[in-house]
Structures are given as C-alpha cells and as structure tokens.
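A further point concerns the way the authors explain their paired sequence and structure data. An entry of this sort, consisting of the sequence and the corresponding backbone structure tokens, reads as follows:
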Amino acid sequence: MMKRKNIRKIVSKITAGIMEKVIDLVLFGIYYTAEMSPLNGGSLYQRFFRIGRDFERFNFQTLQQAVYRARQKGWLNEKLEVTPKGQKRLQEILPKYEKKPKWDGKWYLVGYDIPEEKKYLREILRSNLEQLGFGQFHKSFYISPFNFLGDVEKIIRKYNLSKYVLLAISHKLGREPSQELAERIWKLRELNDDYKEYIQEVKSKKFSPQQVVFKYLAILNRDPQLPKDLLPEDWQGEEAYKVYKRLTRKIF
C-alpha cells in the first residue's frame, strides 16, 4: 500500500512538472504573439495554431488544461490576456541576455559520487547544476567559470549530500587551453552557427515576428553566456541580440 502511495506521488510530481512547462509555453505564446499581432477571432485551437509550431506537439486537451491552470494562478484573465502577475511569471522563466563579465581565470568545480540507491538525488543535483550553467566535464564532474559554489552549497545542505559532493577551485583544467575546453564542453561552435543562421534568416525576412522571438530565446536558453575570454573570436551572440532587440523593442 505504501509503495502505491509513493508511486502516485512520483507520478503526480512528474505530471505537475510537465504541466508547468506547457503553462509557461502557453503564457509565453499568448503574450508575445498578442503584443506583436493581436490574436482576435477564431477558436482557442486556431489561436494556438497561429502562434506557431511549438504547440503542435501537444493535444488540444493538454492546452485547454494549461489555459485553465494559468487562469487559476491568475496569469491569464477571462479574455485570455496575460495579467501583470502573468508578466511577472514570464520575467522569472525567460532566459535573459547578460553582458559578458571579465573572467577571473578560475574554474569552479563540482564532483560527486552518489550511490545508485540515491540516484534520484543525483538527478536533482545534476538538474540544478545545469540550471546554474555548469558544463559536464566528465560523467560526475561539472565545471563553471562563474562562482556559483555558494548556490551549490545550499543544494548540498538541503538534500544532505555533503559526504557525496566535492567542491573545488582551479586555475587550469587538463592540458587544453581554456578557450578550447569551453568550446568542447558547451559546444560553442554549434551555438555560434545557430546565431549566425538566425541573423541571416531574420535579415532575409524568413521569420514571422513570432518566430523572431521564439527562435532567439530558444538559442539563448542553450547559451551558457560565458565570459568574453572563453568565446570564439567570431562570436555572433551579441550581434544576434542586437538584431532581436531591434525587432522586438516595442514589446519590451
């Protein structure tokens, strides 16, 4: 009986997590599309279809539930307009472009060896490290050029992980130059190519206003926003941001 209750709890948490993501996507789509080209007329399904293909992977019932939950939370009103509370939610979840800081030359390291019977804690730690922008150096070893070790300490204390996790600081990792290491860990060339493609496609007017927002934020969400010292010399992230801002300045 106890096992069944535990399984139900886990399933409930997973479902809630998925639904949160759908709600956020719904909120994002309604707000930015309405700001750029009002979605007047048509059924709810037609309105989502006009927002973009991001919604095609969800069935209509899931989207309806997401809208219902968003209204319950006070993020949407009866007219399906995003409320001030909904705008605040968007500010919390959307990736933000940050000016590149100067690097202090140090790498901040997190290594862990968490037993298999506690693998759910391993997933929690890994997920938090990725959210903080750490890159995976090896299977159980993550690095960052930013000092987020204080944030990691909070996670360690919260989940009682002190005997499984090692924190360290180093001026050099392995034999690779730091710029090459960063490129390999965060796949910076691939990311840079995506920025280049984005700039070219926007300039050739291949994107609708909605796609301009969706595509840029999708790339930015994968960008660890590393210090300038670690980026490729022809880095296009700043130029892509300028293009994006010029096209969307009226809604920010």
In short: Residues 2-36 form the longest helix (35 residues). The chain has ten helices and four strands.
